[in-house]
Amino acid sequence: MNDDQLLLSIAVLGGTGKEGKGLAYRWARAGYRVFIGSRSEEKAVAAAQEIQQMLGEGSSVVGMSNPAAAKEANIVVITVPYSAHRDTLEAVKEELKGKILVDVTVPLVPPKVSTVQMPAAGSAAQEAKQIVGEGVEVCAAFQNISHEHLMDDADVECDVLVTGTSKDARAETIKLVQAAGLKGWDAGPIENSVVVEGLTSVLIGINKKYGSTHAGITITGAGNSPK
Amino acid sequence: MNDDQLLLSIAVLGGTGKEGKGLAYRWARAGYRVFIGSRSEEKAVAAAQEIQQMLGEGSSVVGMSNPAAAKEANIVVITVPYSAHRDTLEAVKEELKGKILVDVTVPLVPPKVSTVQMPAAGSAAQEAKQIVGEGVEVCAAFQNISHEHLMDDADVECDVLVTGTSKDARAETIKLVQAAGLKGWDAGPIENSVVVEGLTSVLIGINKKYGSTHAGITITGAGNSPK
Asked: Is the ipTM of this complex over 0.85?
């Protein structure tokens, strides 16, 4: 554990879902204080206990409501389905001022989930920025990571492209990527989120076409970003 | 050379540019009949002669105007800068009926070339489809491939994501990818082109940030698509 981790606590809104719980597990494993948020406090407590039991004493994972989790943490990660994206952000936005929001949302529109269909704002992350307003840095990351291997300790063979409203916020988010045991790349401004969110639809289509379950991407030809 | 190649001829519009000439070289090397098109017939002839000299007898590369090249070929590839995209398509669209158009264009808007900025149609490929109209299948591919290693015989460590207006057209385009010595993936409908075109801006940004010159991507976790 280093100084950054001692200072940082992470809220995972929607942390009872597979992706959120997997990320929460990895951050708790890395020594961060993790607050799991959910619309159901009961489910949040249960998810936190599950992770705490896996990691044993010395880890710190607590379940609570989404707004309470957002209030407690320095960095707030949102991992809800797109249908709950706006409502969840509206419910917590007062707690986000001065913080970094990391949006994991992919704006899939069933049934055509392998076709890119972005909201009017351009992407879910840009929509999030519109909702939370000034004083909140918004990054987008982890949209292409299959939840499957987050809660075992396997290597995840997929890089994380990080977009966001400032270079500093992207750098902070890349630290979280690395803490989760993944390789992160600065993928540029928030306008580039359409690429990373849309890539999830491309990967879903590749899984369908090629019979795979967890297609991902890696960046080549650019050396090794620190993992 | 197999039956497909005997039947197929490829026009490369804008084939005097680095990307187009590199692709033309690789297809001629694979045994396809290649027509290099340019606004300048003189430059087209010079580029064709250059490739012909590299490959020697038995290869077939001819230079001509863009419309003449489009008329001769079964498959038409457009590799012009975005600023010449519309005019080039308008000049050849009558020659495209019943054919496949493969669009390599990335709609970069200088000076912010590492920020995704798509045209109103959603992507350059969707704009191409609007211009060429009914009776032409439009695919998009090769936007993420650095021209650097196309004209030597080095392996290119970047996969090609192929989007397009039909599954059959994407399958035909993937054959061209493979003929060029690259690995191709069906990346879904033409609406997904924003991801692949936009990825070029992300890769330009990664090159700038991480000091590389030819960042690319590979698809992981989905087995080996045939190369």
From this structure: yes
